[in-house]
Amino acid sequence: MKSVVGLVVSNKMQKSVVVAVDRLFHHKVYNRYVKRTSKFMAHDENNECNIGDRVRLDPSRPLSKHKHWLVAEILKKARIYVPPSADNAAAAAVSNPETEAPVSSS
């Protein structure tokens, strides 16, 4: 087997990730290229992978019932959105009073 490149779709397990690998093949009857996706479980020793990372997998000996791949390297890290917490939003509002709506006194 050779190395494959895919996208991490799940990292909810300890030291394991699920990687989706896309491949194109030519369908002879329809004369079109068809995309198929395979999911592989891979071993991630240091829990470095996050969802959306592009990784390269190397084959290995069977590590468990479904794990036969190792994460060789992370090719591209995913951009992770971190929502602003309530403390940061309150601090920003206090430090910048121009952004707040004016309070009318009647």
UniProtKB/TrEMBL annotation:
Belongs to the universal ribosomal protein uS17 family. Pfam families: Ribosomal_S17. Coiled coil: none annotated. One of the primary rRNA binding proteins, it binds specifically to the 5'-end of 16S ribosomal RNA. Keywords: Ribonucleoprotein, Ribosomal protein, RNA-binding, rRNA-binding. One of its GO terms (cellular component) is ribonucleoprotein complex. GO terms for molecular function: rRNA binding; structural constituent of ribosome. This is Small ribosomal subunit protein uS17c. GO terms for biological process: translation. InterPro entries: NA-bd_OB-fold, Ribosomal_uS17, Ribosomal_uS17_bact/chlr.
